[in-house]
Fold this sequence. Notes:
The structure is a homodimer. Chain A has helices at about 5-15, 40-50, 80-85, 95-110, 120-125, 130-135, 160-165, 170, 190-215, 225-230, 230-240, 275-285, 300-305, 305-315, 320-330, 340-345, 350-355, 390-400; strands at about 30, 50-55, 90, 110-115, 140-145, 215-220, 260, 265-270, 335-340, 355-360, 365, 370-375. Chain A is of the alpha/beta class. Chain A has two domains: about 5-230 and about 370-400, Crotonobetainyl-coa:carnitine coa-transferase, domain 1 (Rossmann fold), CATH 3.40.50.10540; about 265-340, formyl-coa transferase, domain 3 (2-Layer Sandwich). In chain A, the strands form three sheets. In chain A, strands 3-2-1-4-5-6 form a six-stranded parallel β-sheet. In chain A, helix 2 crosses helix 9 (about 190-215). Chain A is elongated, with a radius of gyration of 25 Å. The two termini of chain A are about 40 Å apart. The interface between A and B is large, with 159 and 159 residues.
Amino acid sequence: MKIQPDYKGEEAKNPHLDxxxxxxxxxxxxxxLTRVLSGPTCTRMLADAGARVIHVERPPKGDxxxxxxxxxxxxxxxxxxxANVGKESIALDFRDPDDHAFLMKxxxxxxxxxxxxxxxxxxxxxxxxxxxxxxxxxxxxxxISGFGQYGPMSGNAAYDTVVxxxxxxxxxxxxxxxxxxxxxxxxxxxxxxxxxxxxxxxIVTALYAREKTGKGSTVDVAMLDTSISLMAQGLMASLGLDxxxxxxGNRHPYMYPFDIFDCxxxxxxxxxxxxxxxxxxxxxxxxxEWVTDPExxxxxxxxxxxxxxxxxIESVLCTGTAEEWQKKIDEAGVPAGLCLNIDDARRLPxxxxxxxxxxxxxxxxxxGTPIKYGTWNSYGTTKDAxxxxxxxxxIRADFE
Amino acid sequence: MKIQPDYKGEEAKNPHLDxxxxxxxxxxxxxxLTRVLSGPTCTRMLADAGARVIHVERPPKGDxxxxxxxxxxxxxxxxxxxANVGKESIALDFRDPDDHAFLMKxxxxxxxxxxxxxxxxxxxxxxxxxxxxxxxxxxxxxxISGFGQYGPMSGNAAYDTVVxxxxxxxxxxxxxxxxxxxxxxxxxxxxxxxxxxxxxxxIVTALYAREKTGKGSTVDVAMLDTSISLMAQGLMASLGLDxxxxxxGNRHPYMYPFDIFDCxxxxxxxxxxxxxxxxxxxxxxxxxEWVTDPExxxxxxxxxxxxxxxxxIESVLCTGTAEEWQKKIDEAGVPAGLCLNIDDARRLPxxxxxxxxxxxxxxxxxxGTPIKYGTWNSYGTTKDAxxxxxxxxxIRADFE
Lengths: 400, 400
């Protein structure tokens, strides 16, 4: 195993990660009709917060990601595992009348249903979300889809890269066209995952409102909407100034230096977006005189003359490694970071100390939970993802 | 104004956006000590869900973003506006004993406190989050920071680009090194915004748990943790296979074609990540024979031979525009998207229909809310961001 030597030690130091604390969503039952990534991300968060999540999978193969890599040594999919820790599994075919009847029985006793079919598929299977909430007025039914439950594109199929494209994320990422740069996909399925997080947020909001009023609700989350909501700076320009923002590479639109710089080996990220930080960075780079330089002394000037500023900074940075410079600049009180590969990032002592990698009961390592509560369990589930239909007997016993 | 002609019409068609519905977080009072972007994103979501959010700002200048562009025609910052709609403002100096006493009075009557100072600053100002929850056992205190409230890097200053760097996001984004590509910043402040969304999710979870148990809690959200949690695919490889994933540009790591392709003018995103979709894409491109081509007939083969597949696809796409091809491919049932600039994205009929741009009472346009409830108000606030200290009198009257 690859756990850091001090992993358990660090963990013990942090009461936030005490796995014996009660869970905040204890007693909440979730029927999880989702597949692939956006929906399972939402229901994994529910499981990590202590809800009972019953993953209903279609026989005979189950969730699509069970037959999608990367596969680990026992031949199982690590994609499925990472997205489905803490859940139970039952195989049900919606088109089979007995299975459908049992599903309805489960729903009648549940608090939450989550699905990420294409809009209309639930209704076609006799599971129209609006109708379910009418039939069970305390029920919360969350639908996560590419484009949402209504609107001219609601019927379109969506995968992460397509939504990243429509949302403006891809056009905003990468070097400017004037420098030969091209629109660039964000190097992780951010549109899927962020939609899942918003699904979680919407469900918990609806659970709170139900406690106050007794009323359930549908929750409709679209990957396109949630990706658009990431585009804050772009929207500031587009809505406020009627400007179409240009792709500007690694720079911040309104601060400089706030960019990625080449060192002798690897790049380093430096954020000195105000004059106070600039007055610390310049001497750290051996150029105290830059603080009062008439071309660079204010953020507005540095922003205007950013090419010059970048050239001057890189002419110094090329004399050392990224690691050396990151340390030195950070010690001078200026935010600076190494552009780590995720394999290094997850071994950072900070990431380990925060429990962002955790060990399951069977020794597998998965991602930890990013919300730490003082009062509630924040370690999240320690139960590995289920085999297909693994919990059939127990679920039948509980709901029949 | 740039509202689409049918904007209000579309809005009226969608009961999700009915602005007269009750809010899910009605009656919740939030003391908002945050500045800049991550914290204000969290508290804007609380305001959009109907909480009363009182933004406490430091005199004489208030939130940093009030003096940061982009500025709109009346000289005010659109950065501040977009991040702070629906909030009230009071100017209080923590170091002034009277102001501090009044702040404590407000906190004693509030449900939630949110802050995004560097860890330790709250305690230095007599506002230690753990102590506050001890003193007011029903209180929820959410701290959003770059690296979290504990761990070896917890004292480090953080800005978005630095956290993107440490988290693996930057190393994963951009063309592969083997093709001359460089690590690339995601072209929006994704680490700030996603931390704000998790802050919201944590607060609402804690509000639900409080309804059940009467207990408040601290909530500790780190930009680094939440950015790491976006790296699902990378972690699958790193944790499951002990592999450091390479940067692979715009491709998906396990499916092909799932990429961005050049057309005669602009690029188009196409996601045909399984054999069924490939059997639709190939004939749409005029090459039915690719479906059975021994080099391309399965996803595994296409993944292995992706350069060849890309070359073949682009040799067809170069005969038309991205808009023509997107339409044609989409009509064939294969997910495809244009890489829109955010200024075009926010004018998409789908984005307009979903209310993702909305008009404030004073006519300003801001981003809509990405969570739509059947039962609850999902239009969000229509109150523009406040002038500094605008609500002093009313707040004094309510809490004194």
